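Supplementary Methods. Inverse-folding protocol.

Structures were first reduced to a discrete structure-token string of length 626. This string, shown here, constituted the complete conditioning input.
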């Protein structure tokens, strides 16, 4: 009986010792592989780690049994406690399940860690070393993904210990996810899809504003385009996308990219705000303060670039430029500048996003997915709101112009009414004076009667003169038409024939279809009215033809009556003018005049007409694009 008790005691003792040793070796943050579970995320305050202040320990030192007690969980440790001058050893224990139907891997979320050395247990014993980190070229990674991933072998029963050595020149957010490959693929595809939408919107909005700038040449749109480009590349740096796609073979850029493009954001944001809010004229004090902030931010950027790259990290003072832009826009809006209303909302959202991001980076508020991407969300909303702000600015300026035009029209109407009133008063005084004169001198009554008779005669003669005048005008118009064909019209005479675009279109319509319609697609001669004025629809094939189609005037982007005169001037014998004279006369750009005259000359050259007349110009086809 005593032997049995002794045996039972020894068994219990060794069982307890083995349990204690397994617990000590495996650690208290052991992850058990189960098919019912897709993933588990360990933050630094849930992991066992050791902070090597001497930076002298290697893997052979920390793998010893006597060292395992140094690995501890520190619930009060967060990213703000990370010391860039120390080495961190992290231990993760995983209880394997070879019968699992899933493949498993380990993922590090912080893609900004400079050097990450992973020690992976092997089936035959010992450990295999894998080097990761953004200080290494991107191609060394086994997974072409922005984060760092390692495959879990999961081939044998028992607990496997994984060790990680971490060194980083900036505060690292040590956060490890153990997840199935299916979960990783779904998560990665969803994340990259969201990135595609985000960066796609930046590209679309940027190109849209660049096209607006090319059309109207307002520098604020160029500043806004540069601002969007800076936001996009900075977000790519934060996400790790830039390293993957833009400079995979240049890891050194990872150390300066965040600081470079965060400075670029502030630079273009301030320049855009100065132009959009018109601070120089609306508040010179704000204008000077914004310039001072830009100078200080430039000095800080140069300090980080030349002295200490730790200055590139986002800190609480990075909120100051956006806060002041936000406050300045509120002040200018309160002074009655309605254009700033969407601008205020946009920078209010951005200021909130930057504040949350700075607090997350400083570990003042806990890490959450929504808070981590707060800056992305803020940038996206701000881009949309600033686009609305630019459109709203155009609308408000247009409304102000329309109101000014309506005031001018009302003033003209008032002046016309006043003129009518004065005329009526003058007529009344004339009648009164006439009555007085009739009473004083009856002799004038007879004269008035005679004058009345003469007046009737004059009216009859005037009627005859009006008819002759109409015939004369018709004769003059015919004369102008004849001189038009003979290339003898001056600019003023030409404008009398073609005063506006409608006159030109009517003339082209008569020249093109006056003798009958013929479809340019199927040669059909029957047509009906087209969907727009001066167009016709073929009754057979349905082709819609316009009066300018197939002529040298097709696709002209300036007033048609000016194009008519440019074409006429190229053949006229009366007034030969230089490009500068024509540009000034027609209020067009010199390049526009030159391009259209070249288009006419090329079309004439194609049909080999050396002495063209006006009708030849109307019959010309556009050969300039062939």
């Amino acid at each position: 009986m005593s032997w049995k008790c002794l045996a039972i005691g020894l068994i219990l003792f060794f069982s307890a010792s083995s349990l204690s040793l397994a617990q000590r070796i495996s650690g208290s943050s052991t992850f058990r592989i189960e098919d019912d579970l897709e993933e588990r995320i360990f933050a630094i305050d849930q992991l066992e780690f050791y902070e090597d202040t001497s930076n002298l320990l290697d893997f052979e030192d920390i793998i010893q049994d006597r060292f395992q007690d140094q690995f501890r969980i520190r619930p009060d440790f967060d990213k703000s406690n990370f010391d860039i001058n120390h080495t961190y050893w992290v231990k993760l224990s995983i209880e394997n399940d070879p019968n699992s139907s899933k493949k498993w891997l380990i993922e590090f979320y912080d893609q900004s860690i400079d050097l990450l050395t992973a020690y992976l247990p092997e089936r035959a014993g010992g450990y295999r070393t894998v080097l990761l980190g953004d200080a290494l070229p991107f191609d060394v990674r086994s997974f072409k993904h922005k984060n760092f991933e390692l495959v879990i072998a999961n081939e044998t029963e028992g607990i496997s210990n994984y060790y990680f050595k971490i060194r980083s020149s900036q505060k690292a957010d040590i956060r490890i996810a153990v997840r199935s490959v299916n979960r990783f693929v779904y998560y990665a595809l969803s994340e990259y899809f969201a990135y595609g939408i985000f960066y796609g919107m930046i590209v679309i909005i940027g190109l849209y504003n660049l096209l607006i700038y090319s059309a109207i040449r307002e520098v604020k749109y160029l500043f806004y385009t540069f601002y969007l480009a800076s936001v996009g590349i900075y977000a790519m740096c934060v996400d790790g996308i830039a390293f993957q796609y833009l400079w995979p073979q240049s890891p050194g850029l990872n150390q300066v990219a965040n600081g470079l493009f965060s400075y670029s954001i502030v630079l273009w944001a301030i320049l855009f705000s100065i132009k959009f809010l018109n601070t120089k004229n609306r508040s010179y004090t704000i204008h000077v303060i914004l310039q001072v902030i830009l100078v200080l931010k430039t000095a800080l950027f140069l300090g980080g670039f030349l002295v200490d790259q730790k200055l590139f990290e986002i800190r609480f003072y990075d909120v100051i430029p956006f806060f002041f832009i936000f406050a300045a826009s509120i002040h200018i809006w309160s002074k009655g500048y309605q254009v700033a209303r969407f601008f205020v909302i946009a920078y209010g959202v951005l200021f909130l996003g930057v504040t949350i991001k700075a607090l997350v980076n400083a570990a003042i508020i806990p890490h959450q997915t929504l808070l981590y991407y707060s800056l992305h969300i803020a940038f996206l909303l701000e881009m949309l709101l600033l686009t609305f702000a630019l459109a709203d600015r155009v609308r408000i300026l247009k409304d102000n112009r329309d109101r000014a035009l309506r005031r001018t029209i009302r003033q003209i109407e008032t002046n016309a009414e006043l003129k009518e009133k004065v005329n009526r008063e003058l007529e009344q005084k004339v009648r009164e004076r006439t009555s007085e004169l009739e009473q004083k001198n009856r002799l004038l009554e007879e004269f008035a009667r005679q004058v009345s008779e003469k007046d009737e005669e004059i009216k009859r003669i005037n009627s005859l003169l009006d008819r002759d005048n109409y015939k004369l005008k018709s004769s003059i118009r015919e004369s102008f038409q004849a001189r038009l064909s003979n290339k003898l019209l001056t600019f003023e005479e030409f404008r009398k024939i073609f005063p506006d675009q409608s006159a030109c279109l009517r003339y082209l319509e008569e020249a093109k279809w006056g003798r009958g319609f013929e479809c340019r697609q199927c040669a059909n001669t029957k047509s009906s009215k087209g969907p727009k004025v001066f167009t016709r629809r073929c009754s057979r094939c349905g082709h819609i033809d316009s009066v300018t189609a197939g002529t040298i005037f097709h696709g002209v982007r300036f007033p048609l009556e000016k194009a008519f005169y440019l074409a006429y001037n190229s053949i006229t014998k009366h007034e030969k003018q230089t490009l500068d004279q024509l540009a000034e006369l027609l209020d067009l750009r010199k390049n526009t005049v030159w391009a259209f005259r070249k288009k006419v000359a090329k079309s004439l050259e194609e049909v080999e007409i050396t002495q063209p007349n006006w009708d030849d110009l109307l019959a010309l086809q556009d050969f300039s694009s062939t």
